[in-house]
Write a structure and sequence with these properties.
By secondary structure, this protein is α/β, with parallel strands linked by helices. It has 3 domains: about 1-20 and about 40-135 and about 245-430, Glycosidases (TIM Barrel), CATH 3.20.20.80; about 140-240, Beta Barrel (Elongation Factor Tu (Ef-tu), domain 3); about 440-525, Immunoglobulin-like (Sandwich). It is built from 12 helices and 25 strands. Strands 1-2-5-13-14-15-16-17 form an 8-stranded parallel β-barrel, surrounded by 4 helices. Strands 6, 7, 8, 9, 10, 11 and 12 form a 7-stranded antiparallel sheet that branches. The relative contact order is 0.10.
Length: about 525
């Protein structure tokens, strides 16, 4: 009966999605007036540091190269002051300090000074790329003082169940921002602005404590229902009902875009935030001159598409979503090897159900962190399938792809030279050839292909990929029709000595390659 209920609920959710406008067509994905395929790069890894310059200076130096590869948007790490000098910004201390004030041991953030940041943003725009700010609005860390108040300890696995009586606790909840002295924002935070925390200084104990002093309403009810109520994630959980909190965060949203010239947000950890607040944050920020097409993508981390659908409905087309279910499919395919049926690679994915809401990706900073420390949540896509995964997000006509710095640039966390080499070629193929209608040839479990037919300005391309390196390349070919290119010759974009002849009905037999990814383009003399 429970299974039937879930199936009916899923069917109804999918039906109701028909009345929700798609998000991506209404957003700016790159400079206005460009017909180039839009592509986003996440320009950082978890441990990103440059040995010779600040990270913002590194970005400025690489901007022209990124534009040449076809990127139209750059997702920056959180630019705000963290609780410690080496913090990534997800340990948010002061959103209004972009590396300008002497706080938490330095003026600069992990990524550099405010001046470095603004120069990098300006350089990116001059190179024809937009900047996206990572907005960490769920929590704060690194308070300046402790305070005493009343709280109740709750069950970590069911935050709706109290496991202790209400009692006084002492928490690090007071933020004075002594280095900023009220510049940009006069708000000073205290325990009244939070719903919960994870440390009691009085008893020196960890736990999840719901603040219960007078005026506190408890956890938000407009959050994910995992663990009973998933309002609390870490640190000091921000109370998005509090009018002072709301006013400060609404003001920050407009200020950060005005200051940096950025064109949108990546919204961190939205399953833990009040949905109504977040929707209002997006709508208010977008409701300014020149911001109607503000870009927004939300991190709702769940491989279960059924869990994401209610959030898509709740946000009424105001934000896109990372396609975590597709990432999970890539991970499973990399673990299963040749036993994985490639014809099912898009099953249960957001891009398959709602392509105009899906920001597709292969890996990101969270997976690189989990891979390093070996945590159970790790869903890293192994190198045996990473190139194929990138071909599926970059060269198809559905979804908006986001490329991970760690797969593109040398780094100590996750770099693979072969993946980087192929990825650069795939990016150039997306920029120059992957246009027009698409026809799939998903007929064999270990070798699939698709054709991009091209448009008036681009010739199109043919893509073949496999997940079995033992396949006989002379025998394992995908027969595909290339439309109007009858009698032409196609050659490999990776190795122009490899060719495929097209018959007079437009058909050709296209093999993969030893790298398990191949892109075929029309030979120039035939164009």
């Amino acid at each position: 009966m429970d299974l039937i209920y879930r199936q009916v609920s899923y069917w109804l959710d999918c039906l109701l999605l028909k009345w929700v406008p798609p998000s991506l067509p209404a957003m700016q994905l790159g400079p206005g007036g460009s017909s180039q395929n839009p592509t986003m790069v996440q320009f950082f890894t978890w441990n990103a540091r440059h040995p010779d310059m600040s990270w913002w200076e590194h970005l400025a130096k690489e901007a022209s190269h990124l534009a040449e590869l076809g990127f139209t948007q750059i997702w920056l790490p959180p630019p705000n002051k963290a609780m410690e000098q080496t913090g990534r910004g997800y340990d948010a201390y002061d959103l209004w300090d972009l590396g300008e004030f002497d706080q938490k041991g330095s003026v600069a953030t992990r990524w550099g000074t405010k001046e470095d940041l603004l120069r990098a943003c300006d350089t990116a725009r001059q190179c024809g790329m937009n900047v996206i700010i990572d907005a960490v609005l769920n929590h704060k860390l690194g308070a300046d003082r402790s305070e005493t108040f009343r709280a109740v300890r709750v069950d970590p696995l069911n935050r709706l169940r109290d496991i202790e009586n209400e009692r006084p606790i002492k928490g690090w909840t007071a933020f004075d921002f002594p280095g900023r002295l009220g510049k940009y924002s006069s708000m000073r935070w205290n325990f009244n602005h939070f719903t919960g925390l994870d440390w009691d200084e009085l008893t020196q104990t960890n736990g999840i404590f719901r603040i219960s002093s007078e005026g506190h309403q408890g956890w938000s009810t407009w959050v994910d229902t995992e663990n009973g109520n998933y309002d609390y994630l870490l640190g000091l959980d921000i109370d998005h009902h509090h009018p002072e909190v709301r006013g400060d965060l609404f003001s920050w949203g407009s200020w950060i875009l005005d200051t940096t010239g950025a064109c949108g947000f990546r919204l961190d950890a939205i399953k833990h935030m009040d949905r109504r607040f977040l929707l209002e944050f997006i709508e208010r920020t977008r409701n300014h001159p020149g911001r109607k097409r503000l870009f927004a993508v939300s991190e709702y981390w769940s491989a279960n598409l059924q869990s994401i659908i209610p959030y898509i409905r709740a946000f009424h087309g105001q934000t896109s979503f990372f396609d975590v279910p597709l990432h999970e499919n890539f991970h499973r395919a990399s673990k299963a090897g040749a036993s994985y049926d490639l014809r099912t690679i898009f099953e249960g994915s957001l891009v398959n159900l709602r392509p105009e809401d899906a920001v597709t990706f292969v890996d990101n900073h969270d997976q690189s962190l989990f891979q390093q420390v070996g945590q159970s949540l790790e869903s890293w896509v192994d190198t045996n399938f990473k190139a194929q995964a990138y071909a599926l997000v970059l060269l198809r006509c559905y979804g908006y792809p986001c490329i991970f710095y760690g797969d593109l640039y040398p780094n100590d966390e996750c770099f693979d030279e072969r993946t980087s080499r192929i990825l650069k070629k795939l990016l150039l193929a997306r920029k120059s050839f992957a246009y027009g209608p698409m026809v799939d040839y998903f007929e064999h479990r270990n070798c699939i292909g698709f054709v991009r037919m091209g448009d008036s300005d681009h010739a199109g391309c043919v893509v073949v990929l496999s997940n079995d390196p033992m396949l006989d390349l002379t025998m394992s070919k995908v027969r595909m029709n290339v439309g109007l290119h009858q009698g032409a010759t196609f050659h490999s974009f990776f190795d122009d000595t490899r060719t495929v002849a097209i018959d007079h009905d437009g058909w050709g037999a296209f093999p993969s390659s030893e790298d398990c990814v191949e892109v075929w383009i029309k030979t120039e003399e035939n164009q």
